[in-house]
Amino acid sequence: MAVSSPQLPAVLVEAFGAGPLQGNGAAVVLLNAPAADPWMQALAASFKQSETAFLLQLGDGAWALRWFTPSCEVPLCGHATLAATLALGHWGRLQAGQTVTLRTRSGGLAVCLLGNEHSDTTGASLVLPSGALTAMEAPGYLEQLLGCQLEGYWRSGLGYRVALLPGAVPLASVGMLAPELQQDDRQGLVLMQRWSDANPAQPTGHGEVRVLGCSPNYQLRFFAPGLGIDEDPVTGSAHALVAPWWMRELDLPRVVGWQPSSRRGGMICDSPAPGSVRLTGTGHLLWDGHLNAGGMELDPQSWHALAAC
């Protein structure tokens, strides 16, 4: 069923970046009705961001949240959840210090808006599910592609594969791997390594590397051509997956993760409960406007499972 052309609030937030033109861009659309999947997918393809988030207020006052890449819907996305939280604050739907639970296909995600909600750069925290890493033998083609022997390689329930690089490998200088990835690595490959100020892998010429005033403990890059994302600039779900490993490895109650992509950024990670990770970071509001939602189609059934959470 098509509806007339409503004017829907929409923003673009650069999530987990330290300032403008950094971090991971996510469009956020505030729906006034349960939109149909094909319409949301087409809109996400038009925005061409790693993810586009769609927020819908349900009849009981709760918020439902869904995420689409340019080519498919995904079950979990950290940076677009941060963007959605900051968007709710920008629209006056969420106050500083207030915690709400967003209903998603990965269950309820608790989010909290930090102070300065009227600034272009604000902060938020979100709690994402994490998952166990299961060690595997590293694929030979990947070691050949990277030119090094991996120090660890894991699969995960999230579907991502994780590879631990030696400290001497210049992670920031690794080229675009997406076209060369094979099999399950294409659905999401995390390349990670321990942070060291003496490590030649650190990016140069970009100023001081800090996250909310803290120095990183580890860094990673994320490639997911199977999801339509050659490289994701700053990936909340990837940090939520590997942060518990780094907390155990470094014997720290919280760790700071960094992503030295072309649109660098990072987040503070801690674990409020077993099986979950809280990510805290900032985002910058790049643009704010209204979407002329011509041709928007409705499908309440596609949102039914979230309404029942």
Question: How does this structure look, described?
Answer:
The structure is a single chain. This protein has two domains: 147 residues, Diaminopimelate Epimerase, Chain A, domain 1 (Roll), CATH 3.10.310; 135 residues, Diaminopimelate Epimerase, Chain A, domain 1 (Roll), CATH 3.10.310.10. The protein is of the alpha+beta class. It has five helices and 17 strands. The protein is globular.
What is the compact description of this entry?
With 309 residues, the chain is an alpha+beta fold. Helix content is 16%, strand content 36%.
Chain-wise SSE layout:
Layout: E1 7-15, E2 24-30, H1 37-47, E3 51-57, E4 63-68, E5 73-74, H2 78-90, E6 99-104, E7 107-113, E8 121-129, E9 133-135, H3 140-146, E10 152-156, E11 161-164, E12 189-194, E13 218-224, E14 229-232, H4 236-250, E15 254-259, E16 265-270, E17 276-292, H5 304-307
Parallel strand pairs: 2-3, 4-6, 11-12, 13-15
Antiparallel strand pairs: 1-2, 1-17, 3-4, 4-5, 6-7, 7-8, 8-17, 9-10, 10-11, 12-13, 13-14, 15-16, 16-17
